[in-house]
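Re: the request from the purification team.
They wanted to know what the chain is likely to look like in 3D before they choose a buffer screen. I agreed to run a prediction and write the result into the notebook, where they can find it.
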Amino acid sequence: MTLSVTLVTEREHIVQQWQQALTKHGIKSRVVPPSELANAVNGQVAVVVDVDGAELDADELLSTIGFVRASGVLPIAHVDRDRDALEDIITELCHGLVTNGGEDVARIAEAVARRADRQRHRRFEFVTVSPCSDDVLAILGNGDASLHRRPLDASDDGSDIASITIDPSATKATLHLKSGAVCQLTVPAAQAGTYVTNGEADIAIDGEKLGARLRELRLAAGLTQAELARRTGIHRPNIARVEAGRHTPSLETLARIANAIGVSTTHVLVSRES
């Protein structure tokens, strides 16, 4: 299937920049003005929104990017200004795909085909031993990561792992132990979201519970939302959204918040009742 990307812009140099980068990867493109946003998502794998060209205010930008994401299409924000000036929620909605031209455009164009693969969350990208324990660290194609406590199955005798191989389908990893035993790890069918293991159970990220947990830990650390915002570089309104359960952060953002509070990411995700 031929991939196609919509460019929501009226600036010719932005069109040329993106078309050149996309063509190198066999990706077609079409151009629509900001006034025709409703026509931008049909049959597209991604939509590039020219933020400054469209002169969108904060609410209009959030609505535009949110509409693209809610339509099941990958949003990409193209900005002329400093990328850090955008609200953190915009970066989250775009899965980090924010560019201000040049090499950024080439890099993101290359990533479009990969991001278009909606089954990448069901395939292993990397499986290794955790750097902090003998647990197994698994990273999926969409960037989700999980820790799996040993023994993994009845064949796992607990001896050191000698090597790990991922089968061609990338849905199964075979672990060869120094004792000669062999055990396997498979991508769970339910692994459609982000999961982290505390060694006892897999904890799915629940926005409301996560927000309450972060607020609890922040207050216990004696931090205000403003201080946490200063330490993380995340705008205070976005921290407020997370704590209120209105936005679930990515693992990367969650790690930044946890580090600023002074706890581990797993400690945030696992309540004291777990």
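For the purification team: Residues 9 and 33 are 5 Å apart (CA to CA).
Please add any questions underneath this entry.
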